[in-house]
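2 proteins. here.
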Amino acid sequence: MSLIETLRTALSAILSNKLRAALTMLGIVIGVAAVITLSGLGEGVTASITEQIEGVGSNIIMVSPRQPRDATRPAELTNADAAA
């Protein structure tokens, strides 16, 4: 089959099944739009988190209370430690 015959056969199949062709194209459009949207959303979240981390700075220590994981207790922090 030549390229012209292949294109003619494909066009004939599309025109004879218009609803199926339209639904297929709609599915492709929705799929591509979903991929683009999720990709953009992921990039935006990454940029936002990076901006927040950079905004905190490198001279900040964050301390949160919790139970030690093993039998040894860590050293207690005092106000003098925080002032240093």
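next one coming up
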Amino acid sequence: MTAPSALLPRPSLPRTRLPLTSLPFFALLLSCLLPLRLDATVFTWIGEAPGSTNFSGDWSDPANWLPAGWPSDPGDAASITLGALDDFTVTLDVNATISEFLLNTAVGTFAASGRTFEVGNLARIQSGDVLWSGGTWSGNRLLNQSLITVRANSTFDFDTFDQEGTLRILGHAGATSAIFTSPTGFENRGTIELTSTFGRLAEFRVTDGTLHNTPGSTVRLATGAGGPRTWQADLDNRGDFLIETNATFSKTNGTFTNRNLLQIDEDATLSITGAGQVLTQAAGTLDIQGALEARLITFNFDGGILAGNPPILRDSTLNLAPESAGSGDFILRGNVTFNGDIHEGQSIEVQGSSTAGNAILTSPNGLTNHNLLVLTSIFGRRSELHVTEGVFTNPAGSTVRLAAGAGGERRWWAELENDGDFFIETNSTFSKTNGTFTNRNVLRIDEGATLSIDHNNQTLVQASGILDIQGALEVRNITFNFDGGVLAGNPPILRDSTFNLAPETAGSGDFILRGNVTLNGDINEGQSIEVQGTSTAGNAILTSPTGLTNHNLLVLTSVFSRRSELHVTEGVFTNPAGSTVRLAAGAGG
């Protein structure tokens, strides 16, 4: 990209300009380029004031214009079309209000610092450079077809801003931060660049309205010489939006929509925090080679592709549309509300952390996981899933992991229909009032991990598949239905619960019962029940309301000096041939 002439001087050439014929020549030229009023005075820059160098000079010096004088009346027009062969600068050294302005010279620069410049009709930058360092440029219409460089705190207030060339917001050592403000939205049909020649802020603001980045156009938040880049404008991106250094989106109630390419370079971070902001990935690609960190915002993934590193959302709302299926990994921290499903090719990691604390993902209306959900931590914090209404469905081929991470508990506050893989890799709790948790494929508790289910009228159903307890399953005051499939590994420990054993479960299942347990069904072939008095649960009482047949093994024992009892309310206890009952010593009682 060509650098502005005010920053990168061109080689010095002899003081020469193309021959001029007469004033009517310039009037004719302007009439072709600007819709001048009939009573307008056309001032053409000649740069011949005494002491001028290379046709440079001040706006207010009459000797620099033809006719003599300078554009200062609301009806005047200014034409800087000098055909010089070397660089020159026209400096706006006064505030001015005119009708028309034209810059059309290959080697000229129009410069202003802290000025107010109003152009009532058309201001056109056809060729040449503008260097605007603070102040306000306003009017009816600005047409930029070349290069405008903005430094310091500058406002461009036009009814229509046709941005077809390059608009550069430049943090600079002398002018400190660069802040460009447009009170109204406009279309970018060229290039907008936020950069610096010193470690300064470069900021783009649209007070009311939207920056439309049209197809084929580019916005660059460039590294330059360092310093932050801030974007304070609603965005509708249909071109290329390139974030090459650390940048912030910071627009109160702002909406940022990508429909083509929003790219965050490696080592760059885009931060979006609070203020009712909404980021929407509608189409095209959101390519995160660096980092996207959002807090207290809404992120809508409506379509297109999410590539690169997963975005990190904290204390936010995540909306996943069906059209987003195929890509998208997300890291969620703090309290995040989730609407939609986890689609094929997507994953969600709910991550407890030191800065955001415990991580809680809440789905108000049920959730289907078509790929991968992980509850984990990068610090010793809890990680939780809450489903307010409805069921969490884990279909065949999908996975849920309650992972160890860096420590902390995992809590599951959702009814469950598991037809996929559900892995409990660390200490976890199921805690959903009136919740039902049904396994039809794989529910595995790893060695060293404990799954606890306690109170709240909860029901655990082993319907089919395998319940593989390599660690521990400890339940209290719940209902456990063993309806089918295989129970492998260590025996589950049921305390003060209801235990329902279906005939279809024959072949596997060893159980430890503590406290007061009600048993419905029989002890089937290949199964055993140990009724166990303990110090914590006290005496152990197994009650069968309607009779009980033992087809394998029943043991009454203790691990502390407590009683262990069997009660059959109605009916008979039957112990057929080949079956065993042991009233064992245990630890006494």
